[in-house]
Design brief:
By secondary structure, the protein is of the alpha+beta class. The protein folds into three domains: 50 residues, no CATH class; 207 residues, 3-hydroxy-3-methylglutaryl-coenzyme A Reductase, Chain A, domain 2; 89 residues, Alpha-Beta Plaits, CATH 3.30.70. Helix content is 40%, strand content 21%. The chain has 13 helices and ten strands. Strands 1, 2, 3, 4, 5, 6, 7, 8, 9 and 10 form a ten-stranded mixed beta sheet that branches. Strand 5 and strand 6 form a beta hairpin. The longest helix has 24 residues. Belongs to the HMG-CoA reductase family. Pfam families: HMG-CoA_red (PF00368). Keywords: NADP, Oxidoreductase.
């Protein structure tokens, strides 16, 4: 066997690990070992001292182009009026496609948006000697919900425990502690609150053999059927009715053909087992997440969607998309970083009381992208658009 190569750790500065000297030392370290220049990575306008809690071993930035689409006309309960939407992406045609959809929906009178539910979970599991103790514990949980709620909420000023779902299997009881989390996305908030709740539970119930704070039943960073049905984050619906004349004039397509393509797409999605019978909601959601400092890994859950369409007798086309697990924040996490905050402020979505507005703008943007891509496919312009806009020619 070969002797293992000695591990060389990434340099740290114990006195000022977020200073420019520490970042420069790490770039030099990476360059020395790879031979790659990091001039662009090391060029940035933000203050590294603001990054504590957002990143470790900071050495520079990844510059993602941001395009501007709009105006997006939203008829929401939180977002009302016109918005210009920043989309961070390296995919050609994406901004143009969403912009085209925004034009169509603007002329149709805008997108109506509604937040139907708001839950963030932590999902502890409890193990007992037998199923009967697990069943009895479920009854005990209901009886002591008030005390458990009080214990959880000692850790947070904004998180509120709404309910505890229960799912039994063998001698285990799986639970989902559902919270509202204010303007934060809430994964860390719910973890801390549920830990306090579990400590109270263990101190007051001696039938539990063991418990795990997270049982994978919240399905964090993973799409799941339970969250599509029960909601994780915001459950948002965006809907609009578009006259056929607009499809013909703006999109060079037709509502009857759009509806027929929708039926074919529904069957294709059913056959393939997708978690989304729409076209590409992940495109708009990811671009907005990167621009506004969201946890991009939550696209795994947030891009799940249910699309529903109707062809009206007069030729109008009703189209809606339900996003059941949209996980967003207008405060905390990466939202306060320099460019991310600017992008949120561009839409008046930064800070307290703004998360509902942001969720509605994202859902409305997604709807515009669905109709734009669907029309391009029906009009057989999809490939041509990518050929025209999606190549990085020297």
């Amino acid at each position: 066997m070969h002797e293992p190569t000695p591990r060389v750790p990434v340099p740290r500065d114990r006195d000022d690990d977020y200073g420019p000297a520490a970042a420069a030392a790490r770039r030099a370290f990476a360059t020395e070992r790879s031979g790659t220049s990091l001039d662009h990575v090391g060029s940035y306008s933000l203050d590294p001292q603001t990054l504590r809690g957002n990143i470790e071993h900071f050495m520079g930035v990844a510059q993602v182009p941001i395009g501007l689409a709009g105006p997006l006309l939203v008829n929401g309960e939180h977002a009302q009026g016109e918005f210009y939407v920043p989309l961070a992406t390296a995919e050609g045609t994406l901004v143009a496609s969403y912009n085209r959809g925004m034009r169509l929906l603007h002329e149709a009178g805008g997108v109506t948006t509604t937040i139907m539910a708001d839950h963030m979970q932590r999902a502890p599991s409890f193990i007992f000697p037998s199923a009967r103790e697990a069943r009895a514990f479920g009854v005990w949980l209901h009886e002591h919900f008030g005390e458990i709620k009080a214990a959880a909420e000692t850790t947070t000023s904004t998180g509120k425990l709404q309910e505890i779902e229960q799912y039994s299997a063998g001698r285990m009881l799986y639970t989902r502690f559902n919270y509202t989390t204010g303007d934060a996305a809430g994964q860390n908030l719910t973890g801390k609150a549920t830990q306090a709740a579990c400590r109270w539970i263990r101190a007051h119930n001696d039938t539990i053999e063991h418990h795990f704070l997270e049982s994978n039943f919240a399905t964090d960073k993973k799409s799941s059927q339970i969250n599509m049905l029960r909601t994780r984050g915001k459950r948002v619906i965006a809907e609009a009715t578009i006259p056929n004349e607009l499809f013909r004039r703006v999109m060079r397509s037709d509502s009857a053909l759009m509806y027929r393509a929708r039926q074919v797409s529904n069957l294709g999605g059913f056959m393939s087992g997708v978690n989304n019978n729409g076209a590409h909601s992940a495109n708009g959601i990811t671009a907005l997440f990167i621009a506004t400092g969201q946890d991009v890994a939550n696209v795994a859950e947030s891009s799940a969607a249910f699309v529903y369409a109707e062809l009206r007798e007069n030729g109008d086309y009703y189209f809606s998309i339900t996003i059941p697990s949209l996980i967003v924040a207008s405060y905390g996490g990466g939202t306060g970083l320099s460019t991310q905050r600017e992008c949120l402020e561009l839409m008046d979505c930064y800070g307290t009381g703004k998360v509902g507005k942001l969720a509605e703008i994202i859902a409305a943007t997604v709807l515009c992208g669905e109709l734009s891509l669907g029309s391009a496919i029906v009009a057989e312009e999809w490939v041509e658009a990518h050929d025209a806009y999606g190549r990085n020619r020297p």
